[in-house]
Amino acid sequence: MSALLIPEKTMATDDTLMNQHNLASPLVPLSPTLKNQWLASLELTFCHSAQGTQLHRTTRKGPLSVQKAFYPEGRDCAHVYLLHPPAGIVSGDELHLALNIEQSAHTLLTTPGANRFYRARDDFSIGDPQQLQVGHYYLKENAILENLPLETLIYEGAHAINQVDIHMTRSSVYLGWDISCLGSPLTNKPFELGRFTQLNRLYVDDKLVFHDRIAITPENQLLHKAAGLANHSVFATFIVAAPQALAEASQRKLLVTELREKIIDLEAQRKVSVTDIGGVLVIRYLGHHSEECKQYFNALWQTARPACINKPALKPRIWYT
After folding, report:
1. How far is the C-alpha of 99 from the C-alpha of 90, rounded, in Å?
2. Torsion-angle region of residue 87: left (phi > 0), alpha (psi -120 to 50) or beta?
């Protein structure tokens, strides 16, 4: 198994900027409203009852919404598609998503298409919060959240931050990924002048157990360095967290073995790795093709899901359209 070149904990170069984005509430904008600025927020609460998992409450502002919950695998698991009609984030825009998964509820969240961070305006200074997407996910006892969005495209010249904070209990389960695509290599527009920060934090019973952060800037050259992305334009992280279901080291070792066997079957050893980091399984992709990454992650999800929640994986219908 070839190890990826992405560090498990990559420090960014601008701590002040990132501290500004450590939100207490995902529905509170981070910056004063600017001209042509869209501040979008969406808070969803899912509850479990005798009728299964239901979308109990929705609070929204701006162009961020969902239609309804779908139940392709029965009432116990609600599939929800996150809709953002602008399909992209420009300078000054902020998207805030909060999911509350109540006790024993099970939600699968995905998107109908790729998200986009467009080129930032030239009249913003480096310290300004230019383009921001933040997700806060709260899982109660025995709750399950599968967060499986399609890829995020970060265009040349963007100044973007994508932050995901997961708060779960020992009895809950989180399966989620992010897929980041830098620049547009096929149109000869590499990511040379842009800035992008990806931050993932996972808390179990209020204790921080996984912190993963990478900041790509022209100054630090992490896109090109061997200890960074080594000139790869697509990088992705798939988090498998099931503290109770995978409590024993032997259970995690067995699942890691199964995942690595699947990686070998896919002939993806040079692009994908899996590591047990303090009880959290972290799967990495480093390559050049988002479609390839999605194919790999989908196959690995089909292996990880039964081990964590004792259910076979069923692809969301929106992925077939």
Report:
1. 24
2. left
- Domain range list for the chain: 15-320
Residue 89 CA to residue 43 CA, distance in Å, equals: 19
Q: Spell out the per-residue pLDDT of the chain, length 321, in tens.
A: 333 333 333 333 333 333 433 433 444 444 445 556 778 999 999 999 999 999 999 999 998 999 899 999 999 999 999 999 887 898 889 999 999 999 999 999 999 999 999 998 876 555 555 799 999 999 999 999 999 999 999 999 999 999 999 999 999 999 999 999 999 877 788 899 999 999 999 999 999 999 999 999 999 999 999 999 999 999 999 999 999 999 999 999 999 999 999 999 999 999 999 999 999 999 999 999 999 999 999 999 999 999 999 999 999 999 987
Q: How many residues does the chain have?
A: 321
Question: Which strand (E) or helix (H) includes residue 131?
Answer: strand 131-139
pTM value?
0.89
Burial of 122 (0-12, 13-18, 19+ CB in 10 A): exposed
Kindly write down the DSSP assignment for every residue of 31-100, as one continuous string: S---TT--EEEEEEEEEEETTEEEEEEEEEESS-B----B-TT-TTSEEEE-B-TT-SB-TT-EEEEEEE
Question: Alpha-carbon distance 191 to 157, whole Å?
Answer: 7
Say which residue the tokens 């600025």 belong to.
37
- Give, as one character, the DSSP assignment of residue 267: T
Q: b/e map of 198-235 (b: 16 or more CB within 10 Å)? A: bbbbbbbeeeebbebbbbbbeebebbeeeebbeebbbb
Structure tokens at 70: 């779908």
Hey, what are 198's tokens?
């990806």
